[in-house]
Amino acid sequence: MASATYKVEVDWDNDGDFGDANEDITADVKSISYSRGKDEELGKASPGTLQIRVTNSDGKYSPTLNTGIYTDLLPKRVIKVTTTAPATYNLFYGYIETITPHPDPASQDCYISAIDGLDFLARHELDTVLRKSQITGYLADRILDDAGWTKNYPESGLVLYLPLPEMVGTSLVSIDDNEHTITLTGTSWTPTGRSFNGSTDEILCGTDASLIFTTGDFSLVIWAYLDTIGSHRVMFGGNTLDAPHLFSRSNEAVLLSKPSTANAGAADTAMPEDTWACVGCSFDNSEATSNLIYYRNGVADGTVNFDQDFADYLNSIGVGNNAGSWHWSGSLGEVWIYNRILTSVEMLSIYNATSWRY
Hints:
The chain is mainly beta. It has helices spanning 117-122, 129-146, 344-354, and strands at residues 5-10, 29-37, 46-55, 78-85, 89-101, 109-116, 158-163, 172-173, 181-185, 188-190, 193-197, 202-204, 218-226, 232-237, 245-249, 254-258, 262-263, 276-283, 292-296, 299-304, 318-319, 329-338. It contains 3 helices and 22 strands.
């Protein structure tokens, strides 16, 4: 059997990558042991642990050296171990717990211990409802993602995910691979999302290329609560009237629109007032007929023809507003945007996985 080749990396400066000087510590490693998951197939899952012995003959891992990485020798730094041969595989991903230089100068070794992400999360007391929402929205999602936990929504083609009930504060980043910077104007946090005043509140998500749909397919899903029916109430829209908009209109159901040119036919069911609904659509731009399917609460809610291409966004896409003054009045919860068509099974899975909150 071929022996494996390992790589050990530490994000010493906590910048989210392992590409900086001294962050690949493989050459210093003298021994390594780790555990993860279950010891037996039907056994109880146990926290993962990692123990590494590294050479410290040059004092690199001693904080008294006052050079190199000494200021970054801190617990909670991310550490990962991968195999590079005969195949690449993630063996361990977690957080440093202790860094212990051997007290005997003759030994010239340092011992590093780490715990995996799930154990790290379990050790943190979430002491208030507000902080619990914030921490579980960011920390838990990141840790579970690193641990290979399956998400409760489709990941393929996801370009924007805003779990607004879990996004507390003013400096926000979307929970997806693109990590879009989110800018809030007004809006108040609630346990089910963000409330919008119908006149000035909005959320802007930037102009990243992943969010621009011109001639491509896309799907939109959003949990929405409408408290005041208006002439137009936009859930999603680009900062130009040539961009796609998803909104409800007085006494009408949800509809997709290219406001500068045409509105698509509306969904079959009228948008409810003072009731949460999971609404959305899948748009197949490769077809000219029966290419737009609406969904409500995970079930198809009408199929219409909409033969339109869309323009780039001039400034930023918005949640709860668009290029005009069609502000949402009520609340918006979780928001998903995909660069592909979602199937009816996927739409239903999103609804079933998230309806408990609303």
